[in-house]
Design goal:
Blueprint: E1 2-6, H1 13-24, E2 27-30, H2 31-41, H3 46-55, H4 57-73, E3 77-80, H5 84-90, E4 96-101, H6 104-115, H7 119-141, E5 153-156, H8 162-183
Parallel strand pairs: 1-3, 1-4, 2-3, 4-5
Amino acid sequence: MRIAISGPPGSGKTTICMLVASKLECNYVLVGQIFRQMAMERGMDLDVFSRLAEEDETIDRELDRRMLEIATESKDIVLEGRLTGALLKAKKVPVFAAYVDASEEVRAERIARRETKPIADILRDMRLRERSEKKRYLAYYGIDPADKLVYDLWLDSTDVTAEQVAAEIVMYAKKAEADNAHQG
């Protein structure tokens, strides 16, 4: 079963991806790790590489090409990334796509704890990043990563644990797989 988990920064998608992969006993791929690998390949600091990506669309295109290659090579995988679910759907790759969201305040608090930075700075950076990504994804692919119609499942992690969200994704993904098997 191929599952994509998307969502904004701080929504819990990375933790949830790992939990889903563990429950299904399959591999997972974090698109952010691919991005970090690309920065290392160029000998660049992650912040500098991120700013370069805003000006050089070939970086996003290469990142997405690598993710698509990994996704199409394996049917039993969980992929996590901001645009992963929407992009796989747009490219007609069979996938169960889940979007995990949370309130902006909760997302900022989670990131602030993780990065030990002030919440005000996190909120500013988060808003800038989300605007930048939305602009790039619309320009490059005509995709709004937060378009609810693209996803098979939309979950809010504001007031629930990552474990609960992961369990729901597994349950709905298995149901969708069973429904598809009966229709096929």
